[in-house]
Amino acid sequence: MSDTLKYHLLKGLSNALCSMSYDHILEIGKFLGPVIMERISKQKKRGLEQIQTGLSCDRAEAEKLLHKVYQHIGMSAMEMLYMPRLVREKDHIDDYIGLSHPEYLKACYAEGKGIVGLTAHMGNWEWLGAGMALHGFPTSAIGKKQKDDVLMSIINDYRAMAGQHIFLTGTGGYEMIAAARAMKKNYILGFLSDKDGNKVGVPVKFMNRFFSFPQGPAVFADRFDAPILPLFIVRNESGKGHVIHFEKPFHYERTGNAQKDLLINSQKMASIMEEVIRKYPADWLWFQHLFWTGPEKVRMLAVMSPEDIRTVFDGLSYPEDKVQELIHLASAKKESENE
Hints:
InterPro entries: LipA_acyltrans (IPR004960)
Strand order of the largest sheet: 1-9-8-2-5-3-4
Number of domains: 2
GO cellular component, one term: plasma membrane
Protein name: KDO2-lipid IV(A) lauroyltransferase
Order of helices and strands: HHHHHEHEHEHEHEEEHEEHHH
Oligomer: single chain
Main location: membrane
Structural class: alpha/beta
GO molecular function, one term: acyltransferase activity
Largest sheet: 7 strands, mixed
Helix content: 40-55%
């Protein structure tokens, strides 16, 4: 199928959905989500494993939760294509997306330093940015360029339609400069932080696993002395509509040791995300490929103290001999540098 044909088919589907009631498109998505997702065996296996590990539950409980996750994914997909209708009805935005504790957001804007938005793949994260923009708040986000150029084009059109500014990684480096400028204009800059940080990530504990946490939120908060605002969009229990929950903001903690600061603040952000996920487990994207960077590949571990390495693995089911090996490698590296 050509890109042009694919584009027109998706736009046609979007137009058709936008002519329907909100209740109707949700019912379609709730049905299609499990029908489609149950057939993707790799994601299903990963999702079940990560639910069982993260929530310490049995397979039956994990299957029940994953089915609900699939229903939510289906509804979110329909809502994404429903974005033009959402924009047209912005005067009634509260009927679709409400705000919980917006005073935290307003207090952050009042500081005038930009805002680091800590969020995750919760609820309909595309409606998170759209909802904030349609409520009248200057909104931007760091996003990942998708492999599907046609889908990416439509998503970006709809983001712009809602008033969002998205800076895509992997597009040549300019996106980071533009994101910094957005901070200087006192925008909120959202970071989807439940993504593997690769070898340059920060080692943390997350959902009962070792996790390479992306550096972005900590780096921007430190550089701009900006408040960090946890915010997560959660679907209403009925399935209809969402609420954006703003949590109490905080500032980058500084101890005088840059490495320790990065560890402390990253672990704090990971723990906040975990707390929200445990509170609203059906809203999180459990099957995403999160934990593919092992400890041996994370550069930061090689320069950490034995005490800090042990803190990362404390309480995790990670082999003691592997922890000792990481400590030995870090110690050997430090001795080599001191010679």
